Amino acid sequence: MVLVKRFLCAKHRSKHWGKSRLGWTQPPGPGPFPLNRVASPSCPHRRQDTGLYYHRYLQEVINVLETDGHFKEKLQAANAEDIKSGKLSRELDFVSHHIRTKLDELKRQEVSRLRMLLKAKMDAMQEQEVQVDHLSLLKQFDHLDPQNQHTFEARDLELLIQTATRDLAQYDAAHHAEFKRYEMLKEHERRQYLDSLDGERRREEERRLQEQQKRHRQHPRVNVPGSRAQLQEVWEETDGLDPAEFNPKTFFRLHDTNGDGVLDEQELEALFTKELEKVYDPKNEDDDMREMEEERLRMREHVMKNVDTNHDRLVTLDEFLSSTQRKEFAEAGGWETVEEQPVYTEEELVRFEAELAAREAELSERAAQLGREHEALERSQGQLEAKKQELKQAVLQMEQRKQQPPAPPAPGPEGQLLFQPQAGAGAPGPRDALPASATPDQKPTQPPGDHPPQPDQLQ
Ligand SMILES: [Ca+2]
Ligand SMILES: [Ca+2]
């Protein structure tokens, strides 16, 4: 709940996110993102990307709502209960008409974007032939009311707040799951690489990788986050203050950098930089910066679990001071880093590798099928081309024939002219025709020359 109340007001956090070594894109920073403090003067940081797939819609809705003085006032005064009970959402009834119009427009744009997403997804799955039931498909999106696709109502604001709250709360869990997959893929690739080598070369590489791991593990002891030892190191080395004068209250004030009276997740994480630098160096290729971000998250979760007693993901001065009274605060044990605590079991890795192999097989089957389709297409194209050539040739021959003068009738074997049989009634049949090989005594009795032969007498 508080996550949503804190919409749009957190420093951009993920300093090291980018493209991973293995080509995975990182989940964007989670961003608690205060809804009721968006316009607060104590919130100087730029708005951040929550990483939610409807982030833009969420941000635009808030931007528009902020322009309404009445709603802005209610937003700032709202508590968790007001949001939960829908009281805040009902304030939408009092915002001005032109703001409602803008919200309606935003919703229509969002619905149309979702429709396009669905269409793209179906095209990719080659399901364009199926009858599309947009309403039932839109129901899979929780951040707006799909029953009404044209206007933005209180129900839409309520759904948007609830969904964003839930999704942002799940961010940490999603991050851990993603990290686990990343580590398993890394191990899978390492094993595949080693398997591709033989004999001495493999042993050499194994030694090199072990050395690299050993080097990475050689670092100063990491303090337990939130312990006296850890805070004192920040006090002394970052703040440059006298260790003998360590004062938790002063420490709290110094590190509440936005001065809002609480330590939020970003302010807490900033306290761990010193510890993380002991283990991770961005310039050292032995160190995986993605592991560093996982470590930062684990540290923050550890402190929140022990210090944030009302679980609102904020540490108040009281909560902080109480934590310094506990015996764990003074205990100076060391912190187990990510590589000391395997994030997956061998069975999980085996399962992951099986999934990976299945996916690869599926992809190569698809590629083979595409290859076959391509070949068939090429074949039929070839046939088509041959047919075309044949036709072209025939047309050419016809053209040539048309342009040639009519050929003189070919002479018979004895030099006599042969005429083409005449078509039509009365034309003599082959039996009536004078055979070309007719002997002289079979020739007509009339002498040629005096009476030109009648066409029907000649062949
Ligand atoms: Ca603060
Ligand atoms: Ca708290």
Automatic annotation (TrEMBL):
Residues 243-278 form the EF-hand domain. Interacts (via GBA motif) with guanine nucleotide-binding protein G(i) alpha subunits GNAI1, GNAI2 and GNAI3 with higher affinity for GNAI1 and GNAI3 than for GNAI2. Preferentially interacts with inactive rather than active GNAI3. Interaction with GNAI3 is inhibited when NUCB1 binds calcium, probably due to a conformational change which renders the GBA motif inaccessible. Gene3D superfamilies: EF-hand. GO terms for cellular component: extracellular region; Golgi apparatus. The gene is NUCB1. Major calcium-binding protein of the Golgi which may have a role in calcium homeostasis. Acts as a non-receptor guanine nucleotide exchange factor which binds to and activates alpha subunits of guanine nucleotide-binding proteins (G proteins). Pfam families: EF-hand_7 (PF13499), NUCB1_N (PF25434). It comes from the Eukaryota. It comes from Ornithorhynchus anatinus. This is Nucleobindin-1. Belongs to the nucleobindin family. Residues 445-459 have a biased composition (Pro residues). It is found in: Cytoplasm; Golgi apparatus, cis-Golgi network membrane; Secreted. Residues 196-213, 365-378 have a biased composition (Basic and acidic residues). It is a peripheral membrane protein. Residues 196-223, 365-459 are annotated as: Disordered. One of its GO terms (molecular function) is guanyl-nucleotide exchange factor activity. Keywords: Calcium, Coiled coil, Cytoplasm, DNA-binding, Golgi apparatus, Guanine-nucleotide releasing factor, Membrane, Metal-binding, Phosphoprotein, Repeat, Secreted, Signal. Its main location: cytoplasm.
